[in-house]
Structures are given as structure tokens and as C-alpha cells.
Amino acid sequence: MATELPISTKTCIVQQEGNVLIVTLNRPEAKNAFNSEMLLGMYKAWRLLDEDDSLYCAILTANGDTFSAGMDLKAGPDGDNGSTEEFMELMGKVPNIHWQALLRDNRPCKPLILAVEGYALAGGTEILQGTDIRVAAEDAIFGVTEVARGLYPMSGSTIRLRKQIPYCIAAEILLLGEHLSAQRALEIGLVNRVVPKGETLNEAKKLAEKICANGPLAVKAVTRSLREHTEHMSEDEAMLKSDELAGPVFASKDAKEGMKAFKEKRPAVFTGE
Questions:
Q1: Three-class SS of residue 267?
Q2: Is 146 one of the annotated active-site residues of the chain?
Q3: Confidence class of residue 172 from pLDDT cuts 50, 70 and 90?
Q4: Is residue 42 classed exposed, middle or buried when 0-12, 13-18 and 19+ CB atoms within 10 A define those classes?
Q5: How confident is the model at residue 232 (pLDDT cuts 50, 70, 90)?
Q6: What is the rounded average pLDDT of the residues 48-52?
Q7: Which of 89, 126, 187, 209 is catalytic?
Q8: What is the mean pLDDT of residues 250-272?
Q9: In this predicted structure, what is the pLDDT of residue 82?
Q10: Those residues with Cβ within 8 angstroms of residue 253's Cβ, 6 or more apart along the chain or in another chain
Q11: Is 52 exposed, middle or buried (0-12, 13-18, 19+ CB in 10 A)?
């Protein structure tokens, strides 16, 4: 049973279900276009995920028939974007709070699972690239469409997309600004799996359950390596950094429990120690 947390906002519902944080975009009347209230909820959710040892992973999803249309273009660059006093105060202390919310900067060091129903365009596909495992409904539509509006994809697509899928396909997506079907997204490796409409959250929860059954220290260390050991590092340097993460994991009580459980042919009981 999911429990709503006090960091929720009107347009971003944050819940905890066991060891899983569930973040739900909740502005369906505006196609879940991002506004400040939504960004505030997401920012707080990702920071909580990092800080709370009882949370092992998170799911990002949305209410309504559109995952997200990205920036609220109807508001315009100078329009009312639902700014709250709390958001503006936080922005004074954390200038990149919006980029942290959108998973461009300072991504949490725990796995993020995406569950997409309907359209995920512009910022909706950009935030996708900050997640680790992605589930799409069979009717989902993706696209980094900024160029079609004379805009630039500022959430990182020109950097990340070409690393996550073949370069020439990334270039086509970015330069044409066209829509992409769920099946095509699966073919090019942009998403992990495609499921029937209405089933993405259930599938995401199944994946989260499997992650939560593993050693939380090991999962966090692997996620950190995925985040931090990037292509610009030499292989030797990356291996040394990887070993630094591995050491504490192998020295943990969980590692001993995992090996003991394997020997005794029973499920391991991990404590995160």
C-alpha cells in the first residue's frame, strides 16, 4: 500500500510503497507540462531518494493519457509557470534546482524506473534519458521535438541521447524533431520493454520488486558506477574507481549474507549493512 509523503505538491505526488519511491506527475489537464510546483516535488523526491536508506529505487510515472509534453509552451518564456514562493526561495540556494528535478544534474545514486503512457515529447523524452530502466505502453509516443518549435533541448539530449542509442539515430531524432513510436523506441534501445496500455506502472513495480530483492549496498554501488564512470575516463581509471566502490560492498554484512544464503540454497535477507 502506497503512502503519500508530505513533500508532495499539487502537480507532483510522491509516495512510498515498501522500499520504493513512486513519483507521479499530476497535471493531466495540461498534458503534465512542467511547472514550478511539479519541479519542486521532483527535486525533493530525488533528494529524499538519495538520503533515505530505506528507499532502494524509484518509479517515475504520470496521471492521465500523456506522460509529459515537456515545458509549458502555452505559458511562454515569460508566462506564469505556477511558481511558488518555496520554489523561488530554494532556487536562490540551489540555482540548478530545475535541472536536478529534470534529472539533468545530480541524479540520485539509486535506480530510476520510468513508466510511460501516451505522449512523452520534448522534456518528456529528455527526462527519460536520466532514468535507468524504461517501460512504455504500446501506444506511447516519444520525440525530442524542440527544433520544430525553434527551440534547443536544454535538458541534455544533445549529450546523452547519442551515448544511449546509435549516433546517427540520435542525430535523426534531434534534427528532424519527429515523433517516435513505442515499438521504434524499443528497436533502437531507447526503452527496455513495451507492455499493453495501462500496464506500465504494474510492470515498473515488478521490476522495482526485483531490484529491492537484491543487496541495497550493491545496487547503489552499481548505480553510482553507471552514473560516474563515463566514457571520457580511460578504462584503467574507470576500473580503479570501480574497485573503490566494490571494496565496501564486499566487506559488508550483506555480502556475507548473500554468499551464505547461496550456499544454504535460500533467499538472502539483506539489511543494507
A1: coil
A2: yes
A3: very high
A4: buried
A5: confident
A6: 97
A7: 126
A8: 96
A9: 54
A10: 271, 273
A11: middle
Please confirm, yes or no, whether 86 is among the known catalytic residues: no
d(CA 37, CA 43): 10
> So where are the chain's domains?
3-212, 216-263
Cell numbers linked to 118 = 501516451
Question: What DSSP state is assigned to residue 190?
Answer: S
Q: Which of 146, 235, 237, 257 is catalytic?
A: 146
Same fold, 3-212 and 216-263: no
Domain at 3-212: CATH architecture:
Alpha-Beta Complex (3.90)
pLDDT for the residue 233: 87
pTM, to two decimals: 0.94
Residue 80 or 45, more confident:
45
Distance of CA 256 to the CA centre of its chain: 31
Contact 42, 4 (CB under 8 A): no
Give strand ranges (E) for 153-249.
180-181, 193-195
Give which of 102, 119, 116, 117 is closest to 179, Cα–Cα.
Answer: 119
Taking the C-alpha atoms of 240, 51, 48 and 93 in order, what is their torsion angle to the nearest 10 degrees? -90
One of 1.10.540, 1.20.120, 1.10.12, 1.10.8 is the CATH number of 216-263, namely 1.10.12
Average pLDDT over residues 42-60: 98
d(CA 77, CA 92): 19
Residue 269 in this model has a pLDDT that exceeds 60: yes
